[in-house]
Amino acid sequence: MIKEAIGKVVSKEDLTEAEMEEVMREITTRRASTAQIASFITALRMKGETPEEITAAARIIRDKASVINVGDDLMCLDREEITVESETIRCTTEDLTKGTATFNISTATALVAAGGGLKVAKYGRKSLSPLFGCADVVEKLGINLDMTPSQLERCIDEVGICFLYEPLVKKGLEHIVAIRKKMGIRTIFNLLDPLINPAGTRTQVLGVYEACLTDTMALVLKNLGIKRALVVHGKDTLDEISITGKTKVTELKDDGKMKSYTIKPEDFGMKRGKLGEIRGGTKERNAEIVREILNGSIGAKRDVTVLNAAAAFVIAGRAKDFREGIKMANQSIDSGKALKTLERLVEFTNVEERYFRKAYE
Q: Considering the chain, what percentage of its residues have pLDDT values greater than 70?
């Protein structure tokens, strides 16, 4: 099937969901060669992936992931994957010796949201470079990522948050990761990564690196059974709600309706920041920044974290609007609950018996 699919996609023809599912089965079961996989995902990128193609691919990849049973009231805070391909690393750094353009906003956001009472699951992977990546920063915060599904279920129940490490999520897909690294360009797999969350969440805030993708990915989330979602693309921060300018948002509501709109920090009484004020650095520095925020530091770094956590409270139905969500996020920090969540997570994950997994080559 993949040969025929390559021919169609090269001719700018879209695949049906059934065709895409069959191609993905060949890819994930290693029936397709490395050359075929690389040709297919490159041609797909050049054509432009449709919501139907992304949805079908996500369903097949999800079948490969471990399942974590934690109920339906879980929030997924994931982003378009950036830490494998050199193309997206270049897009998000000044150069590979200075670190990320921004600190790991979503990691801080997840802890603030959990401190405010949300149950949060976040996917993480280590970076291709030594400079950033959710999993890299999480480990520098003292959190053990090497846990079994049952341990993660108890972590959600007892702490209210867990970080899902890539080897748990992508069993048997190491060959795809290797191909992506060698290709160095963004492909459909960047879009699939935040859709795989094995916790079966029904609520999600998803960040994407291109504004044109907010509508597409909101439709994909709807197709996959997500009930409420915000898909965001912000100025400078790209896959986060921006404190430095406007953010495009596509909202998926309970009734299945979608709407797109633009927000800016001034809409909520927040001061617009500058990119230099939210810059990150090495994984060690980014971990320090997260701790500084949770310890109550003020400034643009805290503001962008609060604004993104507010989105989580809104889409989870805990806040009626962003202004109320901002208050809840600030309370999570100022009460010490966000910091306490981190401390409890570090303690829980380090008293559990380690479960050693084979790292990706």
A: 84
State how far Cα 314 lies from the chain centre: 18
> Counting beta carbons within 10 angstroms of the beta carbon of residue 35, is it exposed (0 to 12), middle (13 to 18) or buried (19 or more)?
exposed
Enumerate residues 6+ apart whose C-beta is below 8 A from 24: 56, 57, 60, 61
Q: How far apart are CA 311 and CA 204, in angstroms?
A: 10
The residue assigned the tokens 């919501």 is 51
Six token digits for residue 91: 């897009």
Q: What is the pLDDT of residues 143-153, one digit of tens each?
A: 988 888 888 88
Residues ≥6 apart with Cβ < 8 Å to 288: none
Q: Can you tell me the distance from the alpha carbon of 207 to that of 251, in angstroms, rounded to the nearest whole number?
A: 12
C-alpha closest to that of 334 among 116, 47, 44: 116
68 and 198 Cβ atoms separated by less than 8 Å: yes
142 Cβ contact partners less than 8 Å away, ≥ 6 residues apart: 346, 350
- Paired sense of beta strands 247-252 and 228-234, if any: antiparallel
What's the mean pLDDT when you consider all of the chain? 86
The 10s digit of each residue's pLDDT in 270-325 is 999 999 999 888 889 999 999 999 999 999 999 999 999 999 999 999 999 999 99
Q: Is-contact 279 237, C-beta < 8 A?
A: no
Show the tokens assigned to 310: 């507010």
d(CA 5, CA 270): 49
pTM above 0.70, yes or no: yes
The structural domains of the chain, with segments of one domain joined by +, span 2-48, 74-167+197-351
What number is the average pLDDT over the span 205-227? 92
User: In this structure, which amino acid lies at residue 157?
Assistant: D
Q: How far apart (Å, rounded) are the C-alpha atoms in residues 268 and 244?
A: 13
CATH architecture designation of domain 74-167+197-351: 3-Layer(aba) Sandwich (3.40)
pLDDT in tens, 16-48: 999 999 999 999 999 999 999 999 999 999 999
CA distances from residue 158 to 162, 344, 345 in whole angstroms, order as listed:
10, 9, 9
